[in-house]
Amino acid sequence: MSNNDLRWKPSVTVAAIIEQDGRYLLIEEQTPEGLKLNNPAGHLDPAESPEQAVVRETLEETMRPFKPEALLGVYLSRFHRQASGEDVTYMRFAFCGTVGDELPGLQLDTGILRTLWMTVDEIRASVDRHRSPLLLRCIEDHLVGIRHQLNLVTTDATVYSPELRD
């Protein structure tokens, strides 16, 4: 086995932090641990930037177009599933922005039961139902006004066109 095979790699995810009229848009999803709440979120796919990924994931999970306005932050968390022994560290790029209305003809992604708008107090009171500790952490950071320019994350052209590599 080469050193590259042994190199630890976090699982890269994106999340949308969306506030409207004092409520945050969350999803309720089926997980191996039961029904959980989360920000619209998902994995970074090949050949896309984190910003493109959060737009795609938000549409898939909420049926609403998302417009990122700022990078909230980059977060690390670790998840250990007792039953299987799975141990994953997630690196989350969280973006805040706005959503449009639900688009007709779309369906929620597999496993997503519904979307819901919750107040901060409701979110804080439901910590036992959060899929990740980052759900509340990102909202708390949003509440205190943390924002970074979108161009803080740069995606090189080689991500989209591997033939451009040297």
In short:
With 166 residues, the chain is an alpha+beta fold. The protein contains four helices and seven strands.
SSE order: HEEEEHEEEHH
CATH architecture: Alpha-Beta Complex
Tally of separate domains:
1
Question: Which term fits the overall shape?
Answer: globular
| Helical segment count | 4
- What is the strand content? 35-45%
The CATH homologous superfamily name equals: Nucleoside Triphosphate Pyrophosphohydrolase
Q: Any overview of this molecule?
A:
The protein is an alpha+beta fold and 166 residues long. The protein has a single domain, classed as Nucleoside Triphosphate Pyrophosphohydrolase (Alpha-Beta Complex), CATH 3.90.79.10. Strands 1, 2, 3, 4, 5, 6 and 7 form a seven-stranded mixed sheet that branches. Strand 1 and strand 2 form a beta hairpin. The chain starts with a helix and ends in a 23-residue tail after the last helix. The model has no long low-confidence stretch (mean pLDDT 93).
